[in-house]
């Protein structure tokens, strides 16, 4: 009996220890956010904006790898609303992605409780409304994922950590902008640029110390160049990837992209301009903030530092300097370079060409000739409940065709554990930015003109970085590799929100016919049901 009692005691201790470790490593964090309208003057003129808990931009969400997030979003707007967590992979959990292909929007005066986890992720990210053009009114914010205490990072802990949301902005309301698009016209040129929702902010630091600046482009349609007067910027992280730590005088941040730089305050004690300006635009919009040394007695002075003069070639050459740090870890202890992506033969190639056709006399944007339209039933619900008539798996081809552009609900079929080569072909004379939910991907090549199989000779198969959003230059192509290890229904879209709104998006259905919780979580018990799923019940 004594030995049996001792055995029970030891088992109890082990169970307690195991539970304690789980709780210590994967704690739960609870948030309640309320979305409302409010008044602000981002460009000096009062206008209606979207507030989260009374804040514009919304609250900064600082998380740690693998934390469980339970976030109750209450919608007090006059329209249905969803927030999406840009760059959070939602492992096995596209139910929480917060886009119209996976979730019913939250009706006014209703709520939805998001439950998600930044599983095996670190880095600088954002959240924003995915519904309508709500993003043009605010509702966006910072989402940072910090490494667990037991995981080293490849730089000394900075003295401070600043997050900067940069983006173009309109004085026109989001509803008026939506009417412009719905009428078949393109959006006008933006009215200005914002840094953290303002025309000017101040960031303060001590001379001689090093600070982290996390930069995200949350605008609608414009690439932005970022720079700090008199200071070098050391790039250390891009959308969850630790990179070779090169120094830059300025950096192009395309729509939807995020990055982290280290800046050492190694100049004489005074104030310096922080500058954001538009790229590849005839009219250059500029917004300035201030880097203030705590021992400064001198305000900013002199001309605002100019951005790069060269257009696309300068930006392309800079993009090619961003390389994966193969010996550094990210969220996990193993080195990033331990996954030899370049030695894997893709199972197939998908070639996606964007275009700007007129369909039924109205401006639309398309992928392989298909301009996406949202069904009233989220694709994920239709797939789960086997609801017919919502989408088909032959709605879009995996390469451009000569067919006339038309409207459809475009879904690309794929299988779990496929390894894809995807080429974004941009035959237009405008900049493009593409984002994939649920994944990051290796950006293996940029090139001008039309992609061919011979273009593969120029691929970087050794140290291309992984990220969730990549640019495609005018009359050019960008190639990526992606390992489909995350089952679900995932939005592949233009990050330029007017193009996304008017159809430049598809969904990637990553499927395994054998249902298993090892591959994908069950439908949440609190999932909102709408469209053809409205009358159904959860199993």
Description:
The protein is mostly beta strands and 539 residues long. It contains five helices and 35 strands. The strands form eight sheets. Strands 9, 10, 12, 14, 15, 16 and 18 form a seven-stranded mixed β-sheet that branches. It has a six-stranded mixed β-sheet with strand order 24-21-28-33-30-31, with no helix packed on it. The protein is globular. InterPro entries: Cu-oxidase-like_N (IPR011707), Cu-oxidase_2nd (IPR001117), Cu-oxidase_C (IPR011706), Cu-oxidase_fam (IPR045087), Cupredoxin (IPR008972), CuRO_1_AAO-like (IPR034273). Belongs to the multicopper oxidase family. Pfam families: Cu-oxidase, Cu-oxidase_2, Cu-oxidase_3.
What share of the residues lie within helices?
10-25%
Content-based structural category: mainly beta
The termini sit apart by 46 Å
Integer-rounded radius of gyration: 23 Å
Overall morphology = globular
Largest sheet: 7 strands, mixed
By DSSP, the count of extended strands is: 35
Low-confidence stretches: 3-24
Keywords: Glycoprotein, Signal
Domain Plastocyanin-like: 35-148, 162-295, 376-513
Pfam families: Cu-oxidase, Cu-oxidase_2, Cu-oxidase_3
Organism: Solanum tuberosum
Topology:
Blueprint: H1 2-25, E1 28-40, E2 47-52, E3 61-64, E4 68-75, E5 83-86, E6 110-116, E7 123-129, E8 141-146, E9 160-169, H2 174-182, E10 192-195, E11 202-205, E12 210-217, E13 224-228, E14 233-238, E15 241-242, E16 247-248, E17 250-253, E18 258-264, E19 271-278, E20 286-293, H3 312-320, E21 348-355, E22 358-359, E23 362-363, E24 366-367, E25 370-372, H4 379-385, E26 406-408, E27 411-415, E28 419-426, E29 432-436, E30 441-448, E31 466-467, E32 469-472, E33 476-483, E34 488-494, H5 497-501, E35 505-511
Parallel strand pairs: 1-4, 3-8, 9-12, 11-20, 21-28, 25-26, 27-35
Antiparallel strand pairs: 1-2, 4-6, 5-7, 7-8, 9-10, 12-18, 13-17, 13-19, 14-15, 14-16, 14-18, 19-20, 21-24, 22-23, 28-33, 29-32, 29-34, 30-31, 30-33, 34-35
């Amino acid at each position: 009996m004594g030995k049996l009692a001792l055995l029970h005691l030891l088992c109890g201790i082990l169970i307690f220890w195991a539970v304690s470790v789980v709780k210590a490593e994967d704690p739960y964090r609870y948030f309640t956010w309320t979305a409302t309208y409010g008044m602000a003057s981002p460009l000096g003129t009062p206008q209606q904006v979207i507030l989260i808990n009374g804040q514009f931009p919304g609250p900064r969400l600082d998380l740690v790898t693998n934390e469980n997030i339970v976030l109750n979003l209450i919608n007090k707007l006059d329209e249905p609303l969803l927030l999406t967590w840009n760059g959070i992979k939602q492992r096995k959990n596209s139910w929480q992605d917060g886009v119209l292909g996976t979730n019913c929007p939250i009706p006014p005066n209703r709520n939805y409780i998001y439950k998600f986890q930044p599983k095996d992720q670190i880095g600088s990210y954002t959240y924003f409304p995915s519904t309508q053009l709500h993003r043009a009114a605010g509702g966006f914010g910072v989402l940072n994922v910090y490494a667990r205490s037991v995981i080293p990072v490849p730089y000394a802990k900075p003295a401070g950590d600043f997050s900067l949301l940069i983006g173009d902005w309109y004085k026109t309301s989001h509803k008026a902008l939506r009417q412009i698009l719905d009428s078949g016209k393109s959006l006008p040129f933006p009215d200005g640029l914002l840094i953290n929702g303002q025309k000017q902010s101040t960031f303060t630091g001590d001379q001689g110390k090093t600070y982290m600046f996390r930069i995200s482009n949350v605008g609608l349609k414009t690439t932005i160049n970022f720079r700090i007067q008199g200071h070098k910027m050391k790039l250390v992280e891009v959308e969850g990837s630790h990179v070779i730590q090169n120094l830059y005088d300025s950096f192009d941040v395309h729509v939807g992209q995020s990055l982290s730089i280290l800046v050492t305050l190694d100049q004489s004690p005074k104030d310096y301009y922080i500058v954001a300006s538009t790229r590849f635009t005839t009219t250059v919009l500029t917004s300035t903030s201030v880097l203030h040394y705590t021992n400064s007695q001198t305000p900013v002075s002199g001309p605002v530092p100019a951005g790069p003069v060269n257009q696309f070639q300068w930006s392309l050459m800079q993009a090619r300097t961003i390389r994966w740090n193969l010996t550094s870890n990210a969220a996990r202890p193993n080195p990033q370079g331990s996954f030899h992506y370049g030695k894997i033969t893709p199972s197939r190639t998908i070639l996606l060409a964007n275009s700007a056709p007129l369909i039924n006399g109205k401006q639309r944007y398309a992928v392989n000739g298909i301009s996406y339209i949202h069904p009233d039933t989220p694709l994920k619900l239709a797939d789960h409940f086997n609801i017919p008539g919502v989408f088909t798996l032959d709605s879009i081809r995996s390469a451009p065709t000569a067919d006339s552009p038309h409207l459809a609900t475009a879904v690309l079929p794929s299988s779990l554990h496929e390894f894809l080569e995807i080429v974004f072909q941009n035959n237009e004379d405008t900049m493009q930015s593409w984002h994939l939910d649920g994944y990051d991907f290796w950006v293996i090549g940029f090139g001008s003109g039309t992609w061919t199989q011979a273009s593969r000779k120029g691929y970087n198969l050794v140290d291309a970085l992984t990220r969730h959003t990549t640019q495609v230059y005018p009359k050019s192509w960008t190639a990526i590799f992606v390992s489909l290890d995350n089952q679900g229904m995932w939005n592949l879209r233009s990050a330029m929100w007017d193009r996304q709104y008017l159809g430049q998006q598809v969904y990637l259905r990553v499927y395994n016919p054998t249902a298993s919780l090892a591959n994908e979580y069950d439908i949440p018990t609190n999932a909102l049901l709408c469209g053809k799923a409205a009358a159904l019940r959860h199993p």
